[in-house]
Amino acid sequence: MRKPTALSGDAIERVGALLGRTRTKADFRRVQCVWLRASLGLSSQEIAVAVGWSPNTVRAWHSRYLRHGEEILVGAGRGGRRHSYLRPDEEEAFLEGFLEQAERGGILVVGEIKTAYEQRVGHTVPKSTVYRMLARHGWRKIAPRPRHPKGDPSAQEAFKRNSPRSSRTK
Asked: Please, where in the chain does CATH 1.10.10 lie?
């Protein structure tokens, strides 16, 4: 196995200072991974035991540090939307037409929104895509309470008045 690339004394100081400025556990572990190599000269096997990673992960972070510098060690993780049909502002503009209908008291059917969305993106999408988009923009399902079509309100009221546990019986 070849000898790892040595880091300069200046790099050791910068990474050491960076170690004290980290805010998250993930950032700390990444910086610590490079610092242990730079300051103590530990192998990737030893560093892996110290930080709780595999030796391959340690070597990958060392390589990233050597290619990209310190900015790769601290910062945002992997999260985010990588696969989307529309940008968030395009989704908002798309939903504005349906918002007007909802404000007038109309009932929105997801099937109609899905059809319009498919026409907009140019291919079919699962229904869950539309539900997730609605949830992202703060829409929620509000449905009227269902009533039985053969329900008789006068019979229900009479039952309420004549029930033995009713507090309205007199």
From this structure: 9-72
